[in-house]
């Protein structure tokens, strides 16, 4: 089986994740897709719009996180759960999107696999990118049904979320025409690649470099754009927020841009529903 072959499902790991998240996956009976009896909204979030659950999953391998996303997307499409924003940190992983070319690997995928990195062909938009320690990966699983602007508007809103969040750390970021993602000068600080299902549910999302070892990007042409580079918050400011700190800031920005009341449902959450 090649490095892009489909791996066996991580059944046990997935079961553990689902069992740990039953508080928000199962509410019992039919309910409004925006609320549930176990929801507790972040009291620091000023938005009074529909609820969006936030989950900080911590370190998790890519395949387990992907299976979890798909399971959650099915539940969202059936109105069993509200919109949800998942945060995760992956071990070293390279993913190649639907529009990606394998020649954008500077190091052959087979060699990367021998070095211990996971390489996956995935069903999101975009080209090749890297996920790894020191990077906050966000997977919004939300419904776009009835929203004007479709996926293009959604992409622009994700970019705005990250630009707003980066201001919190004194980083002035922007977008570049024809190049999805968030940039500081000619260096990308956050990659974005998404999928929208036939039932209008979003999958995949964004990857924000906090303290990522940028040498991992030397093995690829990031996002298939050879004339651009990559950077991180730590490289730009000398300080990198923790995964929990970054998740809280990005979740707040997500609530502002998407007009959601962000409700933390997280094993590491404090008594106030915020990540500790």
What characteristics describe this protein?
276 residues, alpha/beta, BirA Bifunctional Protein, domain 2, 27% helix, disordered N terminus, aa-tRNA-synth_II/BPL/LPL, lipoyl(octanoyl) transferase activity
Please trace the helix and strand order, writing H or E for each element. HHEHEEHEEEHEEEEEHHE
| Global morphology | globular
Looking at CATH, the homologous superfamily is Bira Bifunctional Protein, Domain 2
Number of helices: 7
CATH class: Alpha Beta
Tell me which CATH architecture applies here: 2-Layer Sandwich
General description of the model:
This protein is an alpha/beta fold. It has one domain (47-264): Bira Bifunctional Protein, Domain 2 (BirA Bifunctional Protein, domain 2). It is built from 7 helices and 12 strands. It has helices at residues 11-20, 22-25, 62-77, 109-114, 150-167, 233-237, 243-258; strands at 51-59, 83-89, 93-96, 118-121, 128-131, 135-141, 174-176, 179-184, 187-196, 202-209, 229-230, 261-264. Strands 1, 2, 6, 7, 8, 9, 10, 11 and 12 form a 9-stranded mixed sheet that branches. Helix 5 packs across helix 7 (243-258). The longest helix has 18 residues, at 150-167. The termini are far apart. The model is unreliable at 1-44 and 267-276 (pLDDT under 50).
Give the gist of this structure.
By secondary structure, the protein is an alpha/beta fold.
Question: What's the arrangement of secondary structure elements?
Answer:
Layout: H1 11-20, H2 22-25, E1 51-59, H3 62-77, E2 83-89, E3 93-96, H4 109-114, E4 118-121, E5 128-131, E6 135-141, H5 150-167, E7 174-176, E8 179-184, E9 187-196, E10 202-209, E11 229-230, H6 233-237, H7 243-258, E12 261-264
Parallel strand pairs: 1-2, 1-12, 3-4, 9-11
Antiparallel strand pairs: 2-6, 3-5, 6-10, 7-8, 8-9, 9-10
Helix pairs in contact: 1-3, 5-7
């Amino acid at each position: 089986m090649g490095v892009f072959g489909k791996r066996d499902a991580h059944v046990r790991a997935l079961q553990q994740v689902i069992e740990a998240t039953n508080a928000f996956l199962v509410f019992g009976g039919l309910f409004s897709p925006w609320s549930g009896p176990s929801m507790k909204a972040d009291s620091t979030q000023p938005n009074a719009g529909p609820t969006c659950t936030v989950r900080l999953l911590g370190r998790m391998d890519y395949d387990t996180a992907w299976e979890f996303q798909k399971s959650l997307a099915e539940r969202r499409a059936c109105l069993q759960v509200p919109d949800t924003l998942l945060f995760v940190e992956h071990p070293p992983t390279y993913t190649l999107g639907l529009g990606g070319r394998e020649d954008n690997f500077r190091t052959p995928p087979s060699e990367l696999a021998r070095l211990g990195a996971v390489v996956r062909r995935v069903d999101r938009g975009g080209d090749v990118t890297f996920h790894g320690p020191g990077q906050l990966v966000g997977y919004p699983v939300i419904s776009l049904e009835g929203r004007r602007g479709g996926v293009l508007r959604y992409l622009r809103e994700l970019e705005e979320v990250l630009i707003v969040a980066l201001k919190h750390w004194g980083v002035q970021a922007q977008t570049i025409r024809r190049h999805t993602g968030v940039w500081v000068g000619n260096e990308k600080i956050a990659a974005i690649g998404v999928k929208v299902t036939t039932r209008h549910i979003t999958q995949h999302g964004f990857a924000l470099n906090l303290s990522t070892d940028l040498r991992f990007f030397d093995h690829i042409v990031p996002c298939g754009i050879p004339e651009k580079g990559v950077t991180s918050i730590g490289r730009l400011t000398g300080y990198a927020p923790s995964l929990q700190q970054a998740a809280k800031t990005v979740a707040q920005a997500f609530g502002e841009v998407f007009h959601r009341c962000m409700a933390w449902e997280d094993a590491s959450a404090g008594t106030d529903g915020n990540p500790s």
